[in-house]
Amino acid sequence: MSMFNVFDTAGTAMSAQAVRLNTTSSNLANAGSVSGDPSKVYRARHPVFSTFQVAMDSEIGAQGVRVDGIVESQTPLGVRFQPEHPEADENGNVYVSNVNAVEEMVNMISASRSYKNNIEIVNTTKELLLQTLSLGR
Amino acid sequence: MQIDSFSPHEQALSFRARRNEVLSANIANADTPNYKARDLDFQDVLNAASRPSSSLRTTHATHISTGPAGVANGDLKYRIPVQPTLDGNTVETDIEQTAYAENALHYRAALAFVDGQIRTLKFAIKGGE
Q: Which residues of chain A have a CB within 8 Å of the CB of B27?
């Protein structure tokens, strides 16, 4: 029965959104981190989503979500002149991570809403299937 | 009265179940770049189901019946977005959610009809007890 595929579809979407929430929390936690070496500074991470076929028995629908990878943001790092900082380089500069806190908050809200949407889908489908099971009782 | 006469509601259930799958895939992919929202068109499915020549004629007992054609074969269509986005995704969550709610309601309605028919049959079988 095709409706069982809905659990797979919504499940993959929820796990993808959970990855997104994880990267968001990691980004926010490291928002203010600095380093004297630009290659060692924390850069904002974002997951890349793509669609894939969850079930082979279904010629329609059943399109789940997969995390293809996590990419680091290429936004330029902030440079701060702070010669007293223990990590400062020979010019007295430290490099600040490129996390944009506002962007991350928006990402968090969007991920949490999508997660909730998928929970609702699972609940409704479960209820429909249970009603189908009790047909004719 | 034939036992297999749940037909319109049974077909409606199968269509609604498939549409449920398509719409939930749309909502699941609400944040996937370049995903195109899809939907089944009820009118198409209805036309295909009510076309008399849509199933093959069987002339021998061992021929495999194609069954009621149409319902399962509704073509998926791409939704035209009201507000296109830059990432190429055409899912509009509010539209998908209302379509999903409407579809679930229709599924429940079809279930209620089939349930009523089963009750009627049971009533007749038990001789009105």
A: 10, 13, 117-118, 121
> How far is Cα A122 from Cα B6, in angstroms, rounded to an integer?
27
Residue A106 to residue A20: CA distance in whole angstroms: 12
Nearest CA to A94 among A37, A31, A16? A37
CA distance B28 to A43: 28
**Best residue of A57, A59, A60, A123 to probe chain B, by most B CBs closer than 10 Å:** A60
Residues with Cβ < 8 Å from B71, sequence gap 6 or more? B11, B14, B15, B45, B48, B49
Task: Quickly list H helices, B29-56.
Answer: 42-50
CA–CA separation, B54 and B49 (whole Å):
7
Helices (H), chain B: 7-28, 42-50, 93-125
With a CB cutoff of 8 Å and minimum separation 6, the contacts of B100 are A121, A124, B20, B23, B24, B27
Judged by DSSP in three states, A65 sits in strand
pLDDT tens digits, A19-70? 999 999 999 999 989 998 888 999 999 999 999 888 766 666 578 999 999 9
Q: What is the pTM of this model?
A: 0.83
Phi, psi of A31 (to 5 degrees): -60, -40
Residue for token pair 């004719």:
A136
Chain A residues whose CB is inside 8 A of the B29 CB are 13, 49, 51, 63, 65
| Helix or strand (DSSP H, E) at B78 | strand B76-78
The interface predicted TM-score (ipTM) is: 0.84
Identify the burial level of A111 via C-beta atoms within 10 angstroms of its C-beta, where 0-12 means exposed, 13-18 middle and 19 or more buried. Answer: buried
Of A51, A118, A131, the CB nearest to B111: A131
